[in-house]
Amino acid sequence: MESMTKHMYLKILKNSDFYEFIFLANSERKKYKGNKIELCAIVNAKSGLCSEDCFFCAQSSRYKTGVNVYPLMDKNEILKKAIEAKKHKVKRFSIVISGKKPSKKEIRKIAESIETLSKNGINPCASLGLLNYDEICYLRDSGLQRLHCNIETSERYFPKICTTHKFSDKVRTIISAKKAGVSVCSGGVFGMGEFWSDRIDMAAFLKELAVDSIPINFLTPIKGTPLQTKKPLSPIEALKIIALFRLILPDKDIRVCGGRPLLGEFSSWIFLSGANALMTGDYLTTKGKSYIEDLKFIKNHGLEV
């Protein structure tokens, strides 16, 4: 499947039976990932007042969404949330902040939090916007294991969902992280109006960047944002997106994150569609499944954490 062209994928998506497509993806998941499911969790460590205009995001200062606004959390508060996640078999815990990038003072405070997490046996990740190489190295030396920086969509479609920074800015941060020897988590949001060709281009580019984990988020239209009237994806289309990314990136972690509720009664198909990782607990501005619910969900499918 890895040697297939964009045209071939488009043809399969159009003509193949849904169940055959899912079967192929599940076979690849089992081949490369077995029956193990990896859990991650996040803390919204700084919320709101973002200068950027990402059309899907509740945290932009340009939109009236009623999102909570608060400054960077204290390291002890972050640690408390991380310890709770660790108790429930969460492997990775990410510090996520709003904004284009943190200030120098915030970077120092985040480095302290990362160091504190490491000392407590927690695998620290972070999602901090458009960091440069030196900033990433500084955080790496504090114990950062993985940096999250979504490309969000294809390069072609990116200007339709954000105008305050460029696709190339995202790529620069990802390349800097790889150069610094830091693992990279990069994916995006689906259901923003993009085409299947955009999704294929996005997956192929993430493969070219050699990212380690691909978070898949399904758009939850938020009142006040430019995408508030977007119709949510159908469960079948969402599952086909998961399967597509498994087939194009067979040996990577395909991680289902925000927007899981839209799957409804098809939620049990997440793993059959190729996912081998989940974000558990709450998301940035929307509620998620509890740790206990997700652990039970995984166990009921004959899988293990």
TrEMBL record:
<keyword id="KW-0001">2Fe-2S</keyword>
<keyword id="KW-0408">Iron</keyword>
<comment type="pathway">
    <text>Cofactor biosynthesis; biotin biosynthesis; biotin from 7,8-diaminononanoate: step 2/2.</text>
</comment>
<dbReference type="InterPro" id="IPR058240">
    <property type="entry name" value="rSAM_sf"/>
</dbReference>
<dbReference type="GO" id="GO:0051539">
    <property type="term" value="F:4 iron, 4 sulfur cluster binding"/>
</dbReference>
<keyword id="KW-0093">Biotin biosynthesis</keyword>
<keyword id="KW-0808">Transferase</keyword>
<keyword id="KW-0949">S-adenosyl-L-methionine</keyword>
<dbReference type="GO" id="GO:0051537">
    <property type="term" value="F:2 iron, 2 sulfur cluster binding"/>
</dbReference>
<feature type="domain" description="Radical SAM core">
    <location>
        <begin position="32"/>
        <end position="260"/>
    </location>
</feature>
<protein>
    <recommendedName>
        <fullName>Biotin synthase</fullName>
        <ecNumber>2.8.1.6</ecNumber>
    </recommendedName>
</protein>
<dbReference type="InterPro" id="IPR024177">
    <property type="entry name" value="Biotin_synthase"/>
</dbReference>
<dbReference type="GO" id="GO:0004076">
    <property type="term" value="F:biotin synthase activity"/>
</dbReference>
<feature type="binding site">
    <location>
        <position position="94"/>
    </location>
    <ligand>
        <name>[2Fe-2S] cluster</name>
    </ligand>
</feature>
<feature type="binding site">
    <location>
        <position position="125"/>
    </location>
    <ligand>
        <name>[2Fe-2S] cluster</name>
    </ligand>
</feature>
<dbReference type="Pfam" id="PF06968">
    <property type="entry name" value="BATS"/>
</dbReference>
<feature type="binding site">
    <location>
        <position position="255"/>
    </location>
    <ligand>
        <name>[2Fe-2S] cluster</name>
    </ligand>
</feature>
<feature type="binding site">
    <location>
        <position position="50"/>
    </location>
    <ligand>
        <name>[4Fe-4S] cluster</name>
    </ligand>
</feature>
<comment type="similarity">
    <text>Belongs to the radical SAM superfamily. Biotin synthase family.</text>
</comment>
<feature type="binding site">
    <location>
        <position position="54"/>
    </location>
    <ligand>
        <name>[4Fe-4S] cluster</name>
    </ligand>
</feature>
<feature type="binding site">
    <location>
        <position position="185"/>
    </location>
    <ligand>
        <name>[2Fe-2S] cluster</name>
    </ligand>
</feature>
<dbReference type="InterPro" id="IPR002684">
    <property type="entry name" value="Biotin_synth/BioAB"/>
</dbReference>
<dbReference type="Pfam" id="PF04055">
    <property type="entry name" value="Radical_SAM"/>
</dbReference>
<comment type="subunit">
    <text>Homodimer.</text>
</comment>
<dbReference type="InterPro" id="IPR010722">
    <property type="entry name" value="BATS_dom"/>
</dbReference>
<dbReference type="InterPro" id="IPR007197">
    <property type="entry name" value="rSAM"/>
</dbReference>
<dbReference type="InterPro" id="IPR006638">
    <property type="entry name" value="Elp3/MiaA/NifB-like_rSAM"/>
</dbReference>
<keyword id="KW-0004">4Fe-4S</keyword>
<dbReference type="InterPro" id="IPR013785">
    <property type="entry name" value="Aldolase_TIM"/>
</dbReference>
<comment type="function">
    <text>Catalyzes the conversion of dethiobiotin (DTB) to biotin by the insertion of a sulfur atom into dethiobiotin via a radical-based mechanism.</text>
</comment>
<keyword id="KW-0479">Metal-binding</keyword>
<keyword id="KW-0411">Iron-sulfur</keyword>
<feature type="binding site">
    <location>
        <position position="57"/>
    </location>
    <ligand>
        <name>[4Fe-4S] cluster</name>
    </ligand>
</feature>
<dbReference type="GO" id="GO:0009102">
    <property type="term" value="P:biotin biosynthetic process"/>
</dbReference>
<dbReference type="GO" id="GO:0005506">
    <property type="term" value="F:iron ion binding"/>
</dbReference>
